[in-house]
Amino acid sequence: MSKVLEIKDLRYKKNHKVILDKVNLSLDNGKIVGLLGANGAGKTTLMRLIVGLNSKTSGQITVAGVESKEAIKSCVSTTYSLKSAFKDVFANSWLERTRIKDIVKFYQTVYPDFSLDKYQEMADFLALDSRQNLKNLSTGETEKLTIALTLARQVQLYLLDEPLNGIDIMTRKKIIKSIIQWKNEEATMIISSHYVKEIAALLDDVIIIKDQTIYEVDSVEEIQNKYHLGVEAYYEQVYGGGSADE
Amino acid sequence: MSNINRINKDLFRQRGKLVSIILGFHILAIVLMMLYKKVFKVTDPTSLTGGVLIAIITGIVLLVISVIYVFDSSKYRLIPISSNGLYFSNILSAFFAIIYLLVGEAIIYFGANAIFPNPYDQMMIRDFNVNQYWFQIKLVIAFILGIMLILVGSVVIRLLVSLIGDLLPIKKQTFATVILTLIVIWAVMVPFNVITANTLILLGVQEVTTSFSSIVRMLNMSLFILVAWNVVLTFLNLYLLNRWSEATR
């Protein structure tokens, strides 16, 4: 099985504080991987470093055999805050009129790998109305849109950062269903979430971040065999039985 | 279509929309003002120069914000394009937006003057219509280069504030960022002023008199300095963007 992601001795420092250190990671193609860790453990930072939104202090990141930031961006599709990133100079005024269809058009324009058909299928499934204005979307609707846009790109690595945060149980179930339904067979997906129980059934492998580094990378099966625990129970055990978020 | 063309298309469309809105508002303001004068029978002549100035300043401020937004936004930083490509697309689209703004404002100004003539603006137009076409072209180029310098300089300030903020052992807070921005602006302005002043002296600014040839010489020196600073700050921006800059939104 070929490697989709390889990280060697990654270090990231900000405001005189080490956020991540000695991070080494190697992931195979075609997996769904859970990225778990307490608040502030560095999950989002790791994802941002992989895709080049943050500048690493030292180390090496390779995605699908490529190392340059530009090439990596062609191989990775990631979630990010649409409401914040799509703000323009008219933000918070009546002139701010970014509709879902404008965002879809932007994705079509800038990402040659964006599949409009795939997006449309997901948008129908998730009941997204393309005429809606971005600033009027609820948290759940924004999250659904983010997932649909991210998964509509045909890439080798997907990074979903807290896709279930702040949304109701029904929407969470719908998002999880769409992840299973529309993930490419060959692609790898890294999902960070505090809703460990809800995503556990999806996962092939688990990465746990603790003390600024990768504490463990294991398959769900191996965790069960080695520790006789489910993913959630093991994660809680790693964090001392309750200091983790969920 | 290459990735660079794709982002160019988006940025050109966005900046075009921004300038069109400013021009639209300006036309609306002129029409409303003239209607007001007609309805209330105001006979005092009103100069249109102030409106043009306000529209241009508003355009420059909004373009600066828009250019900085691009480097801060994950929306643009995630596009599979090099930092250099993103930088030049951003600056180039801002450059064409400035041209559009200036041409648009010139058309509005001359058009409004033809429809609603007033003595102040007619005098201005007469004074500018001397036969020194080459001088006038250089003046316009210097004006555009000056605006570009404001844009490029603002990016330098933004990237430096962000870099220094990340190196300091404090988390970013609005008050701390404002203070840091003021310090950075001051720290950038000191070498900028010293280098510009010394370069002008080296180029012979002290020999400049009020004669037309001296003014032309002064304009040439200014053009040289504007080009030089634009190039130097562009290299600095590219370095900061490639090595240190992070998306914040």
UniProtKB/TrEMBL annotation, chain A:
Residue ranges of domain ABC transporter in the record? 5-236
Source domain of life is Bacteria
Name of this chain's protein: ABC transporter ATP-binding protein
Please name the source species: Companilactobacillus futsaii
Could you say which residues form the signal peptide? none
UniProt GO MF annotations: ATP binding; ATP hydrolysis activity
| PANTHER family hit by this protein | ABC TRANSPORTER, ATP-BINDING PROTEIN (PTHR43158:SF1), SKFA PEPTIDE EXPORT ATP-BINDING PROTEIN SKFE (PTHR43158)
SMART domains referenced in this protein's UniProt entry, alphabetically: AAA (SM00382)
Q: Which UniProt keywords apply?
A: ATP-binding, Nucleotide-binding
Any one Pfam family here would be: ABC_tran
Automatic annotation (TrEMBL), chain B:
Which spans are transmembrane here? 18-36, 48-71, 91-116, 136-161, 173-195, 215-241
Which domain of life does the UniProt lineage start with?
Bacteria
UniProt KW keywords: Membrane, Transmembrane, Transmembrane helix
- State the protein's name: Uncharacterized protein
